[in-house]
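Collaborator request, handled under Task 6.
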Amino acid sequence: MANPLYGQNKADNELDALAGKYEKVQATTKTLLGSDAGGVFELLHASGVAITLPAASACHAGSKYTFICGDATADSTLTRASSADTIAGAGGATADGGALGVTVAAGVVTFDQSGGLAVGDQVELICDGVSKWFVSFTAAS
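Structure tokens returned to the collaborator:
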């Protein structure tokens, strides 16, 4: 962060978290940390990517993580780290009325290749900082 008083401003770490990063995930697994908040993760492995979210209690309230389907040939999953955490949200349809290739069930968000997943479909997760993840989906087309 371009803060002229970097290290003297006690909000530096939180400001860095807001800036986020863009990461192309090419491995089959990745475990996220609270410090990854604000990041955008493009899921690129042809066999799918299994992401483990941080525990909601390890994140600041309002922490946001964005995931983009970069390869629609296999399912990718976003799984809660703690069974005490809940993931809540609703899906929808694409602009042309087709199925959205994302499902939420039992603490797992799935980019569902057989359900109409397309490259560019996005999932955004926002944490309450205690025990909840709120999910929203955006279809690429």
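The cover message to the collaborator said: "Residues 21-138 form a domain with the Jelly Rolls fold (CATH 2.60.120.640). The chain has a mean pLDDT of 86. Please let us know whether this matches your experimental observations."
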